[in-house]
Specification:
With about 210 residues, the protein is an alpha/beta fold. It has eight helices and five strands, in the order βαβααβααβααβα. The longest helix is centred in the middle third of the chain and has 25 residues, at about 65-85. It is globular, with a radius of gyration of 16 Å. The protein binds thymidine-5'-diphosphate. Thymidine-5'-diphosphate binds near residues 38, 39, 96, 101 and 105.
């Protein structure tokens, strides 16, 4: 498939949404056609599913229900938006993707990485990012940033040990696929982070061609 698929991952509060937007602006200025989506979300149906997943009222949600809902939202986004954009040769940036499910549901919730991988194979048709930026931030610092920011949603409201497991899960996944996943130290000024990400993206595009 032509096009380029870039994802951003990390704990809640790691600053990945800001960095995803900055990369989109950077690449657009160079003349690339870039689409930016967020997960869960990015389509009308996926945004509705997002509302259900993150609603604090649904504290009774089973872990498997949660895993299916994330996969359902992803399925819609992949087939309605991401695949057509990639086929058209665009750069697609996604604020979270499959790695979040592997880590939050597979490791954080304890459902197992293999099960989440199987489930999502049906949802994504096996689509994987070409390049992933994992914004690495100590879970204590991420928690501080979340609390300062706004009202917390159902996932952000999970206990500290859940977010610690998620943090360790990201480290594990990043270690497993060092060629795809670039670990970026997030406890630095915004500009330093965006510069590093832009440089790595430039290098990737030059090496692979687009
Ligand atoms: P997001 O809006 O990106 O949160 P934030 O901007 O705070 O990082 O994602 C919503 C929440 O959903 C976030 O807590 C991570 C969680 N999540 C999963 O548990 N599994 C998934 O597959 C995805 C995509 C997100």
């Amino acid at each position: 498939m032509s096009g380029l698929f870039i994802t951003f991952e990390g704990n809640d509060g790691s600053g990945k949404s800001t960095q995803a937007k900055l990369l989109k602006d950077y690449l657009s200025k160079q003349g690339f056609c870039v689409s930016l989506f967020r997960e869960p979300g990015g389509t009308e149906i996926s945004e509705k599913i997002r509302d259900i997943i993150l609603d604090n009222a649904y504290y009774k949600m089973k872990h498997m229900t949660e895993a299916y809902l994330y996969a359902a939202a992803r399925c819609q986004l992949v087939h309605e938006k991401i695949m057509p954009a990639l086929k058209g040769g665009q750069i697609v940036i996604c604020d979270r993707f499959l790695d979040s499910s592997l880590v939050y549901q597979g490791i954080g919730r304890g459902l197992g990485v293999d099960l989440i991988e199987d489930l999502n194979r049906y949802a994504t048709g096996g689509l994987k990012p070409d390049l992933t930026f994992f914004l690495h931030l100590d879970p204590g610092e991420a928690m501080k940033r979340r609390i300062e920011e706004r009202e917390l949603d159902r996932m952000e409201n999970q206990k500290a040990y859940f977010h610690n497991r998620v943090y360790r899960g990201f480290l594990e996944i990043a270690e497993r696929e060092p060629m795809r996943i670039a670990t970026i130290e997030a406890n630095r000024p915004l500009e330093a982070i965006s510069k590093e990400i832009a440089g790595l993206t430039d290098r990737f595009i030059n090496e692979r061609g687009l």
